[in-house]
Structure formats: C-alpha cells, structure tokens
Specification:
Blueprint lengths: L54 E5 L9 H10 L3 E2 L8 H10 L6 H19 L6 E5 L7 H12 L2 E7 L2 H14 L3 E7 L2 H9 L7 E5 L9 H12 L7 E7 L4 H7 L6 H17 L8 E8 L4 E8 L3 E5 L4 E5 L4 E8 L3 H10 L2 E8 L5 E8 L1
Parallel strand pairs: 1-5, 2-12, 3-4, 3-6, 4-5, 6-7
Antiparallel strand pairs: 7-14, 8-9, 9-12, 10-11, 13-14
Helix pairs in contact: 2-9, 3-4
Amino acid sequence: MVARHVARTRARPETVHFALVPAPLVSCATPDVGPRSRMKILDRPGATVPVADRLSLETIPHVAAGASFAAAVDNGLRAKPKTLPCRFFYDERGSLLFEQITRLDEYYPTRVEREILERNAGQIAQAIGPEPELIELGSGSAAKTRLLIRALIAEHGSLLFRPIDIAQGMLEASSRALLADHPELVIRALAAEYEDGLRSLARSHSPGARLIAWLGSSIGNLTREAAADFLGRIRSILCERDRLLIGFDRRKDPRTLERAYDDSQGITAAFNLNLLERANRELRADFDLAQFEHRVHWRPEIGRIEMHLVSRRDQRVWIAELDASFAFERGETIHTENSYKYTPEEIAELAEQAGLRVEQQWTDPAGQFELSLLSNV
C-alpha cells in the first residue's frame, strides 16, 4: 500500500500504476523558469518569519489522457480482468483510512520504517550536502518525515521542504503543523501527482543538495519494469550532489504479509471498498458495498501481494455519470493494488537498471524493511 501514493500515483495488473508520461524530465541544472503564480518564493527560512510567509501551496492539475476518476473507472471495469488504479484510493476519506492503517499492529512497514529512521536519521542527514532541500513523494501526514526534517535541520541549520501529495487538505494541514514546530523550515508544497510534481521540480534550480524521499515502500505498487522506469525519471533530475532515499519492503513470511494487508479490524477492507464508495459519491454509481469483499493474495513466484474486491453474487452496477452498467459474476474480482516485495539483491539490480547505485542501506534487526540511499552512477 502506498503511502502508497502514492499518486502516491498508480488497468491491468501488470500496467504501470503511476500515470507516467513518456517525455523525459528536464535536467536539474536547468535554471528556475516557468509559471510561479500562487507561489511565494522566500529568500531563506528564519525564526522571525511567520508561518503564513513560510508556506506556499501550488496545485498542479493532472491532464494526462484517462487520468480522471471517471475515465479510470470506465476503462477499468470494461477490462478483463477488471481493475481500478490504486492512485484513486487517496481521496480525503481514503487518506484518513490509510493513516489509520499505518497505526495498526499488523501493518508493520510504517512502524519498522519509523524505527529505522529513529536510529539512522542523523546518518542520513550527514550524507546530504549543505543548503539541503528535502523533497518527499506522497508525504501524507509527514509523520515519519518529521524525523528526517529534525535531523536535517540539526545538521544544516535550516531546510527547504517540498512535499508532493494528491490529498491537498492533508498536505496543507501537515505543512502547517510542521512549520509551527520548526521555525527554521520553509515549505513549498505541491498538490499533484508524482510525475507532475517531479516535472515542476525539474524546472527549478536548487543551490544546495536535494534529498528526494520516497518512503513507505510505495515503490512496491509498481511492477519491476515500471519501478526501474520511474527511478530513471527521478535520476534525470538528480545532480551529483543529490540523493534518493527509498523505503523497500523485503520479502518475508507470507502470513505476515497477508495480515498486513487484511487486518483484523477491517480497516484495510474499508480502505479498499472506499474505491466503490467513491464511485457512488462522485459518479452516482449504485455499488452495494455489502456485495463485495476485500481479499488479499501473496504470489511468491513474482514477489507481490495483490488486493482485490470480490463480487459475492451475480450482479449489475449502474454508473449514472458514465451512462453505463457493468455486470459482475459471482467470484469475479476487481484488481485494485499490487505491492511488490524485494530482496537486497533485487534492490541493487533495480538501482542498476535505473542508472543508480546503492550508496548506503539501513534495516531493522529482523531484516523486514530497508531504507536505501541511492545516487547517480
């Protein structure tokens, strides 16, 4: 799961979940150009600058073909097998449900990754050059990011933070909370899909070192091929001084994995079913949520957990905004998410395919999760 944004960004099961575009990103050496309406550029962070003057929020609409929820539902429910892109998990309700998931005992990735950061954030900060800029993909509530922010400020004195997330309400709330706690911090937030946010960043020039953080094992929502492609796009905006910090969920006991995606309280089930509830709200569909069930499945041969919504009976669903109905057979599924797991060797291979190298790695004592610091080859 993304946080899992995952734009977090994510219709067939083997299709790229993040709506990537074919055009390469602009070099990080490109001067700062392009529209800056709605953006207040600050000279420097400082304790005397009010919170309101240290925060800017830019919204970048996603205009790629088929990017709208309506188009994705129409295309996904006509596909065989049926699918819905997991980037649409993260409306306001879905984002709140995911925050609940991250606090569950069964959902170990958030807890273990946080423990790794608590022990090693200082080392990560020391690996980044002066005048740092922290960019986070799928920032959400920024709960774990606080550890990085605190360490970077302690090491370098001040910090520019550029969070990218599609949930604008959560993005603004978390940004204001961070600024209230850290007078040395400036935030330029982007309410955007990943690739749109990165394209915007590629047009900006940073005088210092950039650390792009992609936490929460969100990379697992991409196929191996798509993950290498997306990392290659990130590589295209990395200067020699810049680094990429990624959270990888390692392969492990299938029962541990399945419990993490099918918790005893049913919160992950509600998160999954929220896709159908969102269709009811936004597209005037008549999904009966009681007639669909959440199901997870571990596929060891390709190293991924799958999430599905399974029809409990033969049924037909009407979606008014699409002026169309869709038939479901009993037992038929809608494939909603993949989460790929990695071995250390697979992480190194993935980095190499993207033109990157693993510079440092941090893990927990049980080896469940890994934070990898990558740099340009």
